[in-house]
Design a protein that fits this description.
With 105 residues, this protein is an all-beta fold. It has one domain. The protein has no helices and six strands. A four-stranded antiparallel sheet has the order 1-2-3-4, with no helix packed on it. A two-stranded antiparallel ribbon has the order 5-6. The two termini are 24 Å apart. The mean pLDDT is 76.
Length: 105
């Protein structure tokens, strides 16, 4: 499995407030994904072929003092697609351009 991964991270802290912004791009040549059957009762690994995922994640935290803090993050994944055919249950499924996972066409 070949993976071309790129990432940009920017972190900082101003007083009690911390922040982080991450941009990422994951370009798999031959990715394996978990495919569930029967509503999730069982699962198996499926060859998804060539996939591309890219997006941004932002996060932050606030130090409340006394050993307590609160934080959160948000991930935006505008690109998550298959770029080739994949094999499902010994049949070729035309999944080009679909989001994975979950498979949304």
């Amino acid at each position: 499995m070949m993976l071309e991964a790129k990432r940009y991270v920017h972190r900082g802290r101003r007083g009690a407030v911390g922040y982080e912004v991450t941009w990422f791009r994951l370009n798999f040549d031959n990715q394996l994904v978990q495919a569930s059957q029967a509503g999730g009762a069982s699962s198996q690994l499926t060859n998804a072929g060539k996939t591309l995922k890219e997006g941004v994640e932002v996060g932050g935290d606030i130090d409340l003092g006394g050993g307590f803090s609160v934080g959160g993050n948000y991930t935006r994944l505008p690109t998550a697609r298959l770029q080739s055919m994949r094999i499902v249950a010994a049949q070729t499924a035309g999944a080009t351009g679909c989001r994975t996972p979950p498979r949304i066409c």
